[in-house]
Amino acid sequence: AKNPMRVAVTGAAGQIGYSLLFRIANGDLLGKDQPVILQLLEIDNEKAQKALKGVMMELEDCAFPLLAGMSAHSDPMTAFKDADVALLVGARPRGPGMERKDLLEANAQIFTVQGKALDAVASRNVKVLVVGNPANTNAYIAMKSAPNLPAKNFTAMLRLDHNRALSQVAIKSGVPVSQIHKMCVWGNHSPTMYADYRFAVTDDGKSLKDLINDEQWNRDTFLPTVGKRGAAIIDARGASSAASAANAAIDHVRDWVLGTNGEWTTMGVPSDGSYGIPEGVIFGFPVTTENGEYKIVQGLAVDEFSQERINNTLKELEEERAGVAHLLK
Ligand code: NAX
């Protein structure tokens, strides 16, 4: 039998945690033959820690064969000890009267502390996925706070945007999602992200762009629908995306660890300068993965419309980065 892998999850008593933990323990994250140990972090607050205990009671009550152990933490230095995977879900939500700048700063503090803790105690190969918003900038802060870990180990979640885009294209074209390849999303996990089906093809190589053949739909329906989907879920459900966000986190890490067999997916990763994105900016790119490493898909044509969109989402990320620069000294 395989040795258990340690998966740290922050914000473990939250909405996304409630969907995520059960799927990890069920083997959806790392494979049906891979035992896992869950190391769960919540804020140092009686109510949160009590709620976390409740979730752990339910995990026990599932008697998952792959769940080899679990522990509750209020300190990232113990929660991240020897972690092979770290899912950073917990973040400070926007409170009443809070400006975007206040939100950035509150989260910058959290992700500085957590980046330092990962740097100090996690496995040197830890794979980090930041889900908590603003996800790209939080991942950037954690990466910068962990100089002894490879920068490439820090990623942000664009997969929910990617999956949303896939489903919208499938509905429009009538081609099932399972038969659509080479979808991607560029940029920030925010309404500025650029979901791009120009390269998408069916199993038999037909272009989705040609099949749909409707630029106005792309501009006026598809991009706004994907970009504002989070708000539409809040409006309909009275709560933000949780099960779909947990599902996307599972997809992201599973594909990173187990490989995509040549298929494209989208990950927010530190740029290596590809497509003119400044090095180090955590940006959504089309990637393929193999042997636990991702590679940015190279050589894609960027037309004028796409360049405009990419510039726009990059500009937002650079503003966010400038907004927290003073905290990273
Ligand atoms: P909840 O408010 O239900 O849960 C968050 C949990 O995190 C709470 O239990 C809180 O106590 C905990 N927490 C806060 N600060 C913490 C810290 N410093 N250490 C440990 N735990 C901490 O939010 P939920 O709906 O689960 O969403 C979590 C985050 O995911 C939010 O930031 C949200 O904006 C973000 N999302 C990101 C998405 C993406 O695609 N990247 C999509 C879904 C989601 O909106």
From TrEMBL:
NAD(+) binds at residues 11-17, 107, 114, 131-133. It holds the Pfam family Ldh_1_C. One of its GO terms (biological process) is tricarboxylic acid cycle. Substrate binds at residues 94, 100, 133, 164. Catalyzes the reversible oxidation of malate to oxaloacetate. PANTHER family: MALATE DEHYDROGENASE. This is Malate dehydrogenase. It comes from Massilia horti. The gene is mdh.
